[in-house]
Amino acid sequence: MILQQILRLSSLFHSAVATHVRRNIGLSAIVFNKAKELDPVQKLFLDKIREYNTKSKQAGGPVDAGPDFQKDMNESLARLQRAYGEGDLTKFPEFKFEGELTILLNSNCK
């Protein structure tokens, strides 16, 4: 009986220690990565992404896109509007869940 309780306590202790160690390793990895300097390839990659971001904000769209790109984009949008109907195809759609989904959610909550 005492042996079973000791084993039960040791398994609880083991799981608590394992969770604690796992969290500390995760946090120390984040702190270590922030403390050290990025390697040159990572730094170059991040610099290029930031540079493209500023250029695209200044240009108001894709960077270094010529008139051919805009022509292809307009043709593709026109083709999609013919196929799928009207609406602004450059924006992400907004979904409003009403009807069956609302009924299902309300019935599962009771």
TrEMBL record:
It holds the Pfam family ATP-synt_F6. GO terms for biological process: proton motive force-driven mitochondrial ATP synthesis. Keywords: CF(0), Hydrogen ion transport, Ion transport, Membrane, Mitochondrion, Mitochondrion inner membrane, Transport. Its main location: mitochondrion. GO terms for molecular function: proton-transporting ATP synthase activity, rotational mechanism. InterPro entries: ATP_synth_f6_mt (IPR008387), ATP_synth_f6_sf_mt (IPR036204). It is found in: Mitochondrion; Mitochondrion inner membrane. One of its GO terms (cellular component) is mitochondrial inner membrane. It comes from the Eukaryota. Mitochondrial membrane ATP synthase (F(1)F(0) ATP synthase or Complex V) produces ATP from ADP in the presence of a proton gradient across the membrane which is generated by electron transport complexes of the respiratory chain. Subunit F6, of the mitochondrial membrane ATP synthase complex (F(1)F(0) ATP synthase or Complex V) that produces ATP from ADP in the presence of a proton gradient across the membrane which is generated by electron transport complexes of the respiratory chain. ATP synthase complex consist of a soluble F(1) head domain - the catalytic core - and a membrane F(1) domain - the membrane proton channel. These two domains are linked by a central stalk rotating inside the F(1) region and a stationary peripheral stalk. Belongs to the eukaryotic ATPase subunit F6 family. Component of the ATP synthase complex composed at least of ATP5F1A/subunit alpha, ATP5F1B/subunit beta, ATP5MC1/subunit c (homooctomer), MT-ATP6/subunit a, MT-ATP8/subunit 8, ATP5ME/subunit e, ATP5MF/subunit f, ATP5MG/subunit g, ATP5MK/subunit k, ATP5MJ/subunit j, ATP5F1C/subunit gamma, ATP5F1D/subunit delta, ATP5F1E/subunit epsilon, ATP5PF/subunit F6, ATP5PB/subunit b, ATP5PD/subunit d, ATP5PO/subunit OSCP. This is ATP synthase-coupling factor 6, mitochondrial. It comes from Taeniopygia guttata (Zebra finch).
